[in-house]
From TrEMBL:
Domain of life: Bacteria
Pfam families assigned: adh_short_C2
Family annotation (InterPro entries): L-xylulose/Carbonyl_redctase, NAD(P)-bd_dom_sf, Sc_DH/Rdtase_CS, SDR_fam
UniProt GO MF annotations: carbonyl reductase (NADPH) activity; L-xylulose reductase (NADPH) activity
Record GO biological process: glucose metabolic process; xylulose metabolic process
Species in which this protein is naturally found: Aquabacter spiritensis
Protein keywords: NADP
The protein's assembly and partners: Homotetramer.
Name of the protein described by the UniProt record: L-xylulose reductase
Family assignment from sequence similarity: Belongs to the short-chain dehydrogenases/reductases (SDR) family.
Length: 244
């Protein structure tokens, strides 16, 4: 899809590693100027070096108030990849308040504030644009030790649908990408355990572990003109896991 985003500006949160990094590189490869948001300067420096001239690093915490204000002030924004988020595996009866509050603050509140700010910037420039929220397969189903995480991703799915309706008059499309577990720097230690890898593959009919680039491909499609009439949808990149 080289060149399909020429002249466009995209912003990716959580861009330092994993899915966010892959999305930033995919969008840059398609011609976009990419604003990469992360809290870690070293990660952003490495990312910018991989796509010279295409990446603008923003060192920001998505849970703070500065980032939404900075997004609203952009003179142009065509694509948001709302990726920043986290998980903490806990059995439901063991969930503590700190974990509950942290996941809600990052996965729901910050995701909403960033999407709201991006939508405001898009409306201010005359409309048009694509917002892609990174959800999860557990935004559609449940999972053991994932009660709070699943709750937050169900919230993202609902937010996506409602924002798509509200923003349709402005020609702003809002979609989600819902991957199964992805092999990233965060999950790599788990995949070194043969039992974990075997269990993960057993839940995926296509019998392949997802890589960040698999998710980035779906994001690039939704960000591109190829998806010009796709809005309010959730694209499951799960190897068929939720079809079982």
């Amino acid at each position: 899809m080289s060149g399909v985003l020429d002249g466009r500006t995209a912003l990716v949160t959580g861009a330092g590693k994993g899915i966010g990094r892959a999305c930033a590189l995919a969008l840059a490869g398609a011609g976009a100027r990419v604003i990469a948001v992360s809290r870690t300067p070293a990660d952003l420096e490495a990312l910018a070096a991989e796509a010279p001239g295409a990446i603008e690093p923003w060192i920001e915490d998505v849970t703070g108030d500065a980032l939404p204000s900075r997004i609203k002030a952009l003179p142009r924004l065509d694509v948001l990849v709302n990726n920043a988020g986290t998980n903490r595996l806990q059995y439901v009866l063991d969930v503590d308040d700190a974990t509950l509050d942290m996941l809600i603050a990052l996965n729901i509140r910050a995701a909403f504030k960033v999407a709201q700010a991006a939508a405001a910037a898009m409306v201010a420039q005359g409309g048009g644009g694509s917002i892609v929220n990174i959800s999860s397969q557990v935004g559609h189903v449940g999972g053991p030790r994932r009660t709070v995480y699943s709750m937050t991703k169900h919230a993202i799915e609902g937010m996506t649908k409602s924002m798509a309706i509200d923003l349709a008059p402005h020609a702003i499309r809002v979609n989600a990408v819902a991957p199964t577990v992805v092999e990233t720097p965060m999950t790599a230690p788990f995949f070194k355990d043969p039992a974990y890898r075997e269990a993960a593959l057993a839940s995926i009919p296509l019998k392949e572990v997802l890589q960040p680039e698999d998710v980035a491909g779906a994001v690039l499609y939704l960000a591109s003109p190829a998806a010009r009439l796709v809005t309010g949808s959730s694209l499951r990149v799960d190897g068929g896991a939720t079809a079982m």
